[in-house]
Amino acid sequence: MKVVAINGSPHKDGNTYQCLEEVGKAVQAAGIDYEILQIGTRVHPCLACSHCIENHELQCVQDDDGVNEIIKKCIEADGIILGSPVYHGGIAGGMKCVLDRLMLCAGCVDNQLHHKVGAAICTLRRSGGMETYQQLLGTMDAMEMVIVTSDYWGAVHGHQAGEVQQDTEGMEVMAKLGRNVAWMVKVIDAAKGKIDPPETHARTFTNFIR
Ligand SMILES: Cc1cc2nc3c(=O)[nH]c(=O)nc-3n(C[C@H](O)[C@H](O)[C@H](O)COP(=O)(O)O)c2cc1C
Questions:
Q1: Which of 38, 93, 114, 118 gives 20 to 30 Å between its CA and that of 76?
Q2: Which of 6, 18, 86 has most ligand 1 atoms within 8 Å of CB, for mutation?
Q3: Dist CA 46 CA 90 (whole Å)
Q4: Which tens digit of pLDDT belongs to each residue from 41-62?
Q5: d(CA 144, CA 80)
Q6: How many CB atoms lie within 10 A of CB 156?
Q7: Separation of 37 CA from ligand 1 center, angstroms?
Q8: Which residues have CB under 6 Å of ligand 1?
């Protein structure tokens, strides 16, 4: 069993990373593998070229920025945690680029993410935590993932790298999130061969008029 976390901050060791680490300590303590995937600083946005959709490919045509490796590891994982700093009230730009492509390649065509465990966290100096947290969750709940929560919303306060460690309540929320993620991953694993997951099928894509 493995859980991967995506650090959507350009800071490899910043607040978002430290929160994901806190989640990971609890996941690992439960005997589950855990890896934090760092997004690159030059990730491309989705080109909306539809190549992945039209060719049923689980990879993006843009293969030079590490996103395909993230997509591959997410497809292989039992659980995915999304982490982003709040940038101007929403997900950081690089993370948005990754998520648009991850959800299109791995989720929209032949959904590889459904029934995987999902959770989200964000870090912020002051405002925009709820919006960003909901935005991250929204990408996963459209992928039929099993969303796991903590006992408070996943927004931890800090500005300079390391300041999140002073948000005692926030870090407790992270640890609890990690325990809940680990528990749900184990529950789903233990059910294999005993309780079948519900059937799923490709959506009928409609727009608002037909
Ligand atoms: C471009 C930019 C925009 C930001 N916008 C917000 C914001 O809207 N609200 C907020 O509370 N903090 C904002 N921040 C602060 C970061 O969210 C905060 O410092 C966060 O902890 C950084 O996480 P990191 O260390 O993982 O990069 C912004 C920072 C940057 C660089």
A1: 93
A2: 86
A3: 18
A4: 999 999 999 999 999 999 999 9
A5: 13
A6: 27
A7: 19
A8: 9, 11, 14-16, 85-89, 123-128, 158-159, 161
